[in-house]
Amino acid sequence: xxxxxxxxxxxxxxxxxxxxxxxxxxxxxxxxxxxxxxxxxxxxxxxxxxxxxxxxxxxxxxxxxxxxxxxxxxxxxxxxxxxxxxxxxxxxxxxxxxxxxxxxxxxxxxxxxxxxxxxxxxxxxxxxxxxxxxxxxxxxxxxxxxxxxxxxxxxxxxxxxxxxxxxxxxxxxxxxxxxxxxxxxxxxxxxxxxxxxxxxxxx
Length: 203
Description:
Elements: E1 4-12, E2 17-26, E3 29-33, H1 35-49, H2 54-71, H3 82-106, H4 134-150, H5 153-180, H6 184-190, E4 201-202
Antiparallel strand pairs: 1-2, 1-4, 2-3
Helix pairs in contact: 1-5, 2-5, 3-4, 4-5
């Protein structure tokens, strides 16, 4: 029997991205591959190779992409307009507001690396009632503002690289919390990663 390839696209307003799932069906085959599963596999492989340094590598990449957005020369995208500068300002204000809310909720538990502190407790108060990783949301928003102002394809590509890095970092952090606190799995099912969780629509 020949294999059939089914393509399913889920729109998740939680992350604001499309997750494309490929299902290979044939004799004795029935499985899914999606973006989240791929990230988990990459994280698992990286942790095996760098068991103590992986979190540090992710943080280094995060600041590398932000640093590049600060120093790359401005471009001239053909679709750029004054409206993009207004959007950049809105992203900056949003980033500051979310970062302040996250910092106030975390208090002394705040840290840059994804590994939780030895005595840290799972935080689900304040902005963490709606978003699991609001600091990453703030970083993505301020980086988006920077990319819009730089106005180049290079800036957009760097922002995409930052998004992938923070996806890996958030998945890694979630896995560490599930191993540390039994409540984490339920919390992660209920609360969105970078934006509040909303109804999933499939077509």
